[in-house]
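S1.2 Input.
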Amino acid sequence: MAIFFIIALSVIPLLFAFQEVITSMFEVSVMQSEEAEDNVRLKAARFFMVDFFPNSFSYITGNGAPGNNSEYGRQIRYYMENYGFFQSDIGMIGEYSMYGILFLLAEMTILIKTLFIKLPDDIKFVRYIFIGVLMMSFTGGGGFSEAENVVNICLLLYLIDAYKTIDRNPKPLDNAIKPVNTHTSI
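S1.3 Output.
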């Protein structure tokens, strides 16, 4: 009980010290919630989910990663420069527009499987890394579409597989073959 009282007494001066910062953050949050329809990320998400696909097959396979010298790459650059629509800003929706629903299904399968798989205590940290990847996949560039992240994810999946194959309680071999001495003395 005394600890809670001490914590409460130490928080009160912090509220007064950071009152201006807290008030400013609250005002910005209210302003952003009132102007939700003007949010460029919401506009970009709507655009890349609905208006961007050239045909029905692209919903399954995606449009591909934009290249600098291709017509598609110039089109993506135009949307970035003129409208502020960045595929990397809208997380999984950006990955969906590039790689399609098959890619997203594979990504979600890997993430969900690693979150619910039983892991040994030695590598429980892997689950927390994948929780972080899942949380960042909604708001920023997804972990599965960036080349440097793919290597890390592959290494983590390999670590899980390696630990699954290690026998933690090896059984003694009763019928083990004993080495035979083939050397004879002269």
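S1.4 Remarks. Residues 38-165 form one domain.
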